[in-house]
Amino acid sequence: MIDAISYSEIVNAVNENLTSLPKRMLALDSVDQASSHAMAEINAKTKKHSLVAVLFCNPKTEFCKNEILYYLSYLHHRSGKAINIFCCGYGAYWPEDKYPDLEQVTKIEGVDWLYSDKAFVSVVEEFEEKTNWNYSGENELLLLDVVSSSEPKILNINNAIVCNLEQMKKDNAFSSVRSLFEQLIRYCATTEAADTWTFSDAQGLNIAKNLLKETILGFLPKNLQASYNKAENYVIRKI
Length: 239
Known about the structure:
The protein has helices at about 5-20, 35-45, 60-65, 70-80, 115-130, 165-170, 175-190, 190-205, 205-215, 220-230; strands at about 50-55, 85, 90, 105-110, 110-115, 140-145, 155-165, 235-239.
């Protein structure tokens, strides 16, 4: 878990992580010349991908208290290197005068983590300005497929979806937010995930744009997948 009190802090952390990631390459032994050329083309199109989770969860809401706040320390440790999780409006080691409304809301590794509505609103406004997302006012999760960029001050978002966690819970899309993150973390830690991103790069933009939403839908009960997959559905939608 990293301080997430501004868009620029998220950008810096994500781009630093992308820089440290090795580029995934396809390689096979004993292939003919045609196959070798095909692999070279795929590798040329392959980008460094980082899946980023951006949580907009207000600790004053019952949903956040029951589903997220108490488990932030767990998610911090469980996510490891599989996925970056940013909880907007939260941070640690703030001086008392940093925000007039700051309050201590949880602990991570024994350290007090603080929350500020002012910081939260600031990140909301920055994301609304720089993406096609508009905040619903409820607890939401943005999932961003970010690829490396030559411009260090922006997030080079390959594709993105927003999940309205409160509505998903009402629809019984998951038993808990923890269970949803557990599936996401397990998926991100597998070679299957890396292979899928490599394949999407080779197939082109249209495949990549649908990949993230299809991946999340695959975690959900089958009776909800069809309705959530509709383009106009607001519970899980591409942005």
